[in-house]
Amino acid sequence: MITGILLQTVQTLLSILLAPLLMGWVNQCRAWLQGRSAPPITQPYRTLRKLFNKDAVIAHSASPLFRFAPYMIFACMALAAGLVPTIANDLPFSPAADVIALVGIFALARVFLALAAMDIGTAFGSLGARREMLVSFLAEPALLMVFFTASLISQSTELPIIVQTLAHKDFVIYPSMAFAAVAFWMVSTAENARIPVDNPTTHLELTMIHEAMILEYSARHLALIEWAVALKLFTYSVLGIALFVPWGIAQRGDFAALPLALVAMLAKLLVGGAALSLQEAVSAKVRLFRAPEFLGTAFLLGVLGMLIHFLLEV
Amino acid sequence: MTIGTQDWNLTQIAAHIRRGRVDAANLPALAQAVKDEGGQLVALWGSDDRFVNNSRDSDSRSSPRPQAGEGPGVRDAGYAIHIACITAAGLVWISAALPETEPAYPDLSAIFPQADRMQRATFDLLGIRAAGAVDTRKWLRHKAWNEDEFPLRSDFVARVASSESPLATCHKPLAEVDGYAFIRVEGDGVHEIPVGPIHAGTIEPGHFRFSIIGDRVLKLEQRLGYTHQGVEKRFVGMDLAAGAKLAGRVSGDSHVAFAWAYCMAVEQATLSAVPDRAAWLRALFLEIERVANHLGDLGYMGNDVALSFGFMQFWRLKEDWLRLTAKLFGHRYLFDRIVPGGVAVDLDEAGRKALRAASKRIEAEVRDLKVIYDEHATLQDRFVNTGVCKPALAARLGLTGLAGRASAQAWDARAQFPQAPYDTLDVAMATARKGDVQARSEVRFAEVFESMRLLRALLKGLPAGAIQAPLNPAAGVREGIGWVEGWRGEVIVALRIAEDGRLDRVHPHDPSWQNWPLLEVGILGNIVPDFPLINKSFNLSYSGQDL
Hints:
The complex is a heterodimer of chains A (314) and B (547).
Chain A: H1 2-33, H2 43-52, H3 64-83, H4 99-119, H5 123-154, H6 159-168, H7 175-191, H8 210-213, H9 219-244, H10 258-282, H11 291-313
Helix pairs in contact in A: 1-3, 1-9, 1-10, 2-9, 3-4, 3-9, 4-5, 5-6, 5-7, 5-11, 7-9, 7-11
Chain B: E1 2-3, E2 6-7, E3 11-14, E4 17-21, H1 27-36, E5 40-48, H2 58-62, E6 79-87, E7 90-98, E8 104-106, H3 115-126, E9 129-131, H4 174-178, E10 191-195, E11 207-213, E12 216-223, H5 231-235, H6 240-248, H7 255-269, H8 276-304, H9 308-329, E13 338-339, E14 342-343, H10 349-375, H11 377-383, H12 391-397, H13 401-405, H14 413-416, H15 437-461, E15 478-485, E16 490-497, E17 503-509, H16 512-522, H17 531-538, H18 543-546
Parallel strand pairs in B: 4-7, 8-9
Antiparallel strand pairs in B: 1-2, 3-4, 5-6, 6-7, 10-11, 11-12, 13-14, 15-16, 16-17
Helix pairs in contact in B: 6-7, 7-8, 8-9, 8-15, 8-17, 9-10, 10-15
């Protein structure tokens, strides 16, 4: 039990600390693909340090909610990161929430972010909050469909059992999971405010979705939100790994497999981050009202995955 | 020359440029005749003619006093209103004298809607009123001077606000000071987004007031004038060489166009001739400027749809281009390379070769990039049918220049009314009909290719000889107008030289004056997140119209 708690703590901290590195890697790859010289992979850490050392500027009209939201958002993402198996499976914290609760945790963070954005009363904040809700209420059902497909296969909505089934039972090819994987990739793109749904690097306020909501934040609050954003990308990435390419994640009590699990995870993240940056390099941002079509496609693929499971795999 | 059925008694002052004076009361009839002929009003400005002949020593400046019988043109004039129109025969510059007390002229914005903002600005600067105009709100005046003061009048005394003598507008709440009455859209669920004047990114200041439902734009209203620097006032009393520097800085991205138009006006006013080689080099500079700006804009349009690849590629090419320009001519944007009487820098044989090689290489790369833009589905989805300015509307509102050509407004001074050396080059005009972002991008691509062709033709035919000739000494009050097709559209500089040989009144006109209002129309029915892209596809100048 003690080792379990220890391992759980290590894994959660590892996620929190590694998250900016993944962000740095994606940025680096994107710069290379655009033919620019890239910032160092550690740039996100430097940005965070810079922001933590600054004095926060807060609007006069801000309510306590505005100050509180960054902590809440960061806590939600840290919680989510703790729930997803990254290197070890079936840790003591895992039974606390299943995949459906995980979707709820993401939603909770989003609600606070949107409320904080509207709290100040600027036009951009409400504009961003409105668009974020448009994107997320379409993304959530698609994400649930992906989870349902995975849980139909493993007969459980608990992540450890899903991972256990997919990684450590007999090797079976599940066609349904191929559809679910594409759907999951699309949802992740939208949920993490990446191109083609949103542009994380734009300076054009009028086009922003996620960034418009955090325009009023500065210093430590902004740092926490930026970190939470990195953590969200990391959590989605390891979630994708756990669902679709879980091989390498250590089984319960198998400490010898941990170093290999860590290497496997890092290798998968490298590939995933490079793939994301490739997608961002070759695509343009879709018109805002095409985002529902994009997510509708993701939902459709999720549903198809489920249907195929019933048709072929039962 | 006749416009419509009437002979307006115009005299030709240069190739394709005519000058005339009419009574202010006849201005609407003239404007209507131009309109009926298919022409457009391109510029409107005023001048204070009360003290033109006074010498400019410090005594007379501090206590200017009109003397009987002085003043240009009509001798009893107090003020004058000037309009420049493009007609089938070229540019027509019409002036009308106005009385010293209560100067007013009949409103022209009912005939040419593009006159509206120019009329309002003319009132803010000179106190010349357009009688009968519907919109009499201020335009350029924010809070730097009082309502009853007119900075361009020669007896205006600039005051610096201090605690002893505050401007009447100081220390009042901003809403009361500016008090600009935006047009409100009322109704359920209508939401206003104020954007600017300070924006993210390195762009000039301007205020945009969107009225929206959801993300759909019901109305956009612009409030400009934040970069008003008193350029026209600064010109007063400058010598001719210094004026060229200032003229080029009216809008930095159109430096060559403004500097050339200014020099053309000066040379016309002083009856000076420019050596052939200088004229050819000026055209070369103008095409270099056009290519640089088009490359930058095409990149920006890619960036605004988050296709960073396009942005990086076009900006790499632009940077190569600018560096080569700096190497050959000593300045990336060719600042101060055009001077009255000619150009300040020559091009040697090695430079010629380098420029030709660069133009070929960059043209080939742009052709490749065009294929990528054309075949990128998402980019096409964002460009096509976005920000449409239909040809009929463009014609009614006077859309001009590059944006105009993308909406079937086929005006290009280089092609239709060519000055030397364009008269030997047979410029092909690029036009499109749809008037959307894609059309403006297509016109840019076509103009890059045409400019590259012109560039090589200019390099090939570059005549030998001097690059500068001294100006003839000016005698008496003299006037001139320069007209150059810059990359954004026609740039006009009209000027008057006083008896002492210094500048008395200079009006630089940027095509952004006419095109800004079209942006308000082009965005209608589009969604808010498409605005930056539409805006960038026009890429209008703030400082060019704020002056």
